[in-house]
Specification:
42% of the residues lie in helices and 0% in strands. It is mainly alpha-helical and 74 residues long. The N and C termini lie far apart (52 Å). It has one domain (18-73).
Length: 74
């Protein structure tokens, strides 16, 4: 079988699906991806600090180690 015909045959027999990916675009979702835990554990619920504090959350306010920090411990 020729190469082009083989690839047509292979594509005809393969499984096709649309990728279903939700891209994180909020501070809690970015932090969840970086830490592997939910917002209840890492403590970031929004871009803005809670309880009337003025300012934006910073990385040192994450209450759970991020993946790069865990890997640096070893």
């Amino acid at each position: 079988m020729e190469r082009e015909n083989f690839f047509k045959w292979l594509l005809g027999r393969s499984f096709k699906s649309e990728p279903k990916v939700i891209i994180p675009y909020t501070a809690p979702s970015w932090t969840t991806v970086a830490t592997g835990v939910n917002p209840g554990k890492h403590g970031i619920f929004n871009f803005i600090k809670p309880y009337g504090e003025i300012g934006v959350v910073k990385s040192d306010e994450v209450m759970y180690p991020r993946i790069n920090e865990v890997l640096a411990f070893k």
